[in-house]
Automatic annotation (TrEMBL):
[2Fe-2S] cluster binds at residues 108, 139, 199, 271. Keywords: 2Fe-2S, 4Fe-4S, Biotin biosynthesis, Iron, Iron-sulfur, Metal-binding, S-adenosyl-L-methionine, Transferase. It comes from Rhizobium altiplani. Pathway: Cofactor biosynthesis; biotin biosynthesis; biotin from 7,8-diaminononanoate: step 2/2. Residues 49-276 form the Radical SAM core domain. Binds 1 [2Fe-2S] cluster. The cluster is coordinated with 3 cysteines and 1 arginine. Binds 1 [4Fe-4S] cluster. The cluster is coordinated with 3 cysteines and an exchangeable S-adenosyl-L-methionine. HAMAP family: BioB (MF_01694). The gene is bioB. The keyword Transferase applies. Signal peptide: none annotated. This is Biotin synthase. Belongs to the radical SAM superfamily. Biotin synthase family.
Amino acid sequence: MQPHTDCPTAKSGNREPLTASDATFIYNLPFSDLLFRAHGIHRANFDPNAVQMSRLLSVKTGGCAEDCGYCSQSAHYPTGLKASKLMEVDRVLSEARKAREGGATRYCMGAAWRSPKDRDMDSIVAMVEGVRALGMETCMTLGMLTPQQSERLADAGLDYYNHNIDTSERFYSEIITSRTFADRLDTLANVRQAGIKVCAGGILGMGETAEDRISMLVTLANLPAPPESVPINMLIPIPGSKLANAKPIDPIEFVRTVALARILMPASHVRLSAGRTDMSDEMQALCFFAGANSIFVGETLLTADNPGEDHDAALFRRLGLKAEQLERAE
Ligand code: SF4
């Protein structure tokens, strides 16, 4: 086993390639041993009682050309979602101001596109610059990016770009056929090359096996630099979508995946993303103990429900958690 995955108090820094068999061994440890190991690594790299809070806004909803089987916004499925045009920059900034007042330190903006069109880039750049001027970190998810588009967003000061790999390479084509796993990795490489921090994770409960979950995390951990942010979503089955009837994931398997993400990527923020409304408070508490240290706040995530801020505030009080403060050099 690799040293940085073996020691419960390992700090980040060692970058030896991980094998699927090492990761499988860890994933299958007795649950208490796995959590002890993950929590030790978490504690060695982060304040275990601080959780980073992001707010997500859909700046262009629905009508997407991609066929992601889990998504309410794909034009391929009769999900009943009405498509909208790209939101006005002023409205985005006014929403961002409200998010800042609510305690969010990172503002994530998502557009349901295969990739951004050149005609939209001026507005996108204005959104990034405007949100940064409010003193928040910025994140965008706009689909596939070329090297040139990545450079333009980097020049605008974009902090993070989200582009999930969703699942393992093996299982990927069961979920999406309109673009490949390699396309996803190309966009992540373009973003990284431009100097933007990477946010990349996946979705659990799509019918994948434990091996697929492990493989997805090994792929992320073995990128030239692991993503700074790793969202772990739990599928919200969308009526009309390809995965409308997917069997829910066992919560213990979900927690195991969070723990493995923490162990394989010790310095990354691991985010509990979509699906928190279907998680008990106890399941979320286990995820925080296992190394999750980021959430989305607000009533909605793009088009999906999210626990309200009152519920999150009560849960944070019960668990003694606090919001992570933003540390920015400039
Ligand atoms: S996940 Fe993104 S790319 Fe895929 S269909 Fe939904 S909006 Fe489009």
